[in-house]
Structures are given as structure tokens and as C-alpha cells.
Design goal:
The protein is 17% helix and 27% strand. By secondary structure, it is α/β, with parallel strands linked by helices. It has one domain: Metallo-beta-lactamase, Chain A (4-Layer Sandwich). A hairpin with a 4-residue loop joins strand 2 and strand 3.
Length: 257
């Protein structure tokens, strides 16, 4: 059995957003409180993180994450990478560095932001013991296979992910402004599809809620989820309007395959 855990479902500001007093930001319901977007895939042998944003410490404590076997990074934006330093506690007891898979531009940027990150085990170095790896081909870890494909997202390279497991097939695209025919080919035959929906008005680098819904309905997975949502999207207002199988994800939601 594979378990999918939504660690965070929010946009880059998180929800509540600093300085905002809208009804969603003031709502105490956890389904309207969103840390930065990230998911955890786990089975009996592996625990895999996709994106490690600035809320990772809080997410890991809440989810009681005890170990990680790999990290995949979809792109270099800070809301997907600025928790990398908190991987330290998950690397020190390992016999080998924790692999962090990313495209070349993201790896280059991470080395600039985290110049002290290395695979050295020199005594007293309180750094994450990770190894950046090229993610240009599908990567198999235990019974899970992680394939990446490019999606447009502003002026930076960004990737969606397809995860194939014995229990089912998952598509995860936390950031994009469109899905090309080539990207849609990677998202065929899914059991679960997860797609970003930033807000209800247009944005140059993100899908609107309505456009995301159109794509989710066209992809036709057995269950579909919105993620990377801002405070313009109210769970209580939107969820009752959706048909069965289409859901707003929320932090802490777990799905079994």
C-alpha cells in the first residue's frame, strides 16, 4: 500500500497570509489553513518527499516524519526549496548522503543558496548531508517510480511529476500556467491527479481555479485534488459546488492507494 500525505496545500504566501484580514485568513478551520505546497509518498520501505519549502520543519513535526529516503524538487522557487537546511536531522544517521533529485537549473541555484551543503562527514559540521542528483530520467525507489516532465511556470524551468506505484498512479503538478499536449500525455490513466489552482483571477504563472478544474475534468483521474491555493479560495464555499471525485486538498489529508 502507498500512502499520499498532503504536507502543505498553500501558495507561496501560505494561508493565513501576512497582513491579510480576509475571511479565509481569519478562518480557524484547518481546511482553510495552508502551509506551502509539498507532499510525502510512503510505503513499507520508502518515504519520499516532493518539494521542501520553508514550512518543512512544521510539516515534519505535525506528520511525525522520522526518516526520509529521497527528495524530489520540482523547481527552484523559495516556497519549494527553502526548507532544505531542515533536512539535516534526516541525514546524519544515514550511511550515505540523502539524494535530492532536481533539474540542472535548480541544482545550480541550490548550490548558490546553500554553499555549505556537501556530502562531507567532517566532525562538527551541522549541515545537511545530501547529494544533488540529475532528474532527467525516471527514478525508481523501491516500488515507486518518479518521472518528471516540463510545464510552463513564469520564466523558470518547472516540472510536473508522475508517480507509478503498485497501488495506483499519481500525477502532481503544484505549479504551472498551462498543460501542453505533451504534459497531458504523461497524465494519462491516473488514479489520482493533483493540480495547482492559485486563485479565481488570472495570473501569468499559475492556473486559475476554473482553468485547473477544466484540466482535472479532462484528465479524468479517479480522484482529483486542487493544491497550491491562495486565500481567495474558500474550502467551505467551493467544495460543495464540486462533483464527486473533485476535491480541494487540505494540509494533513492522507490518501491510500
Amino acid at each position: 500500500m502507498t500512502r499520499l500525505l498532503f504536507l502543505g496545500t498553500g501558495w507561496s504566501h501560505g494561508v493565513p497570509m501576512l497582513g491579510c484580514d480576509c475571511p479565509v485568513c481569519r478562518d480557524a478551520d484547518p481546511r482553510n489553513q495552508r502551509l506551502r505546497a509539498s507532499i510525502l509518498l510512503s510505503d513499507d520501505t520508502h518515504s519520499i518527499l516532493i518539494d521542501v519549502g520553508p514550512d518543512f520543519r512544521q510539516q515534519a513535526l505535525r506528520a511525525k516524519i522520522r526518516e526520509l529516503d529521497a527528495v524530489f524538487v520540482t523547481h527552484q522557487h523559495s516556497d519549494h526549496t527553502m526548507g532544505l537546511d531542515d533536512l539535516r536531522c534526516f541525514t546524519w544517521a544515514r550511511e550515505s548522503p540523502l539524494p535530492v533529485w532536481a533539474d540542472s537549473d535548480t541544482r545550480e541555484r541550490l548550490c548558490v543558496v546553500y554553499p555549505y551543503v556537501c556530502t562531507s562527514r567532517s566532525p562538527g559540521q551541522a549541515v545537511p548531508l545530501v547529494e544533488f542528483k540529475s532528474w532527467t530520467q525516471p527514478v525508481s525507489l523501491g516500488n515507486m517510480r518518479f518521472s518528471s516532465f516540463p510545464v510552463p511556470h513564469g520564466d523558470l524551468p518547472c516540472y510536473g511529476v508522475r508517480i507509478d506505484t503498485p497501488g495506483g498512479r499519481i500525477g502532481y503538478v503544484p505549479d504551472c500556467s498551462d498543460l501542453s499536449p505533451q504534459a497531458l500525455n504523461h497524465l494519462e490513466g491516473l488514479d489520482i491527479m493533483i493540480l495547482n489552482a492559485l486563485r479565481d483571477t488570472p495570473h501569468p504563472a499559475h492556473l486559475t481555479f476554473d482553468r485547473s478544474r477544466e484540466y482535472l475534468e479532462a484528465i479524468g483521474a479517479k480522484r482529483s485534488f486542487f493544491t497550491h491555493m491562495g486565500c481567495a479560495l474558500d474550502y467551505h464555499h467551493l467544495q460543495p459546488t464540486l462533483p464527486e471525485g473533485l476535491e480541494l486538498a487540505w494540509d494533513g489529508l492522507e490518501v491510500e492507494l
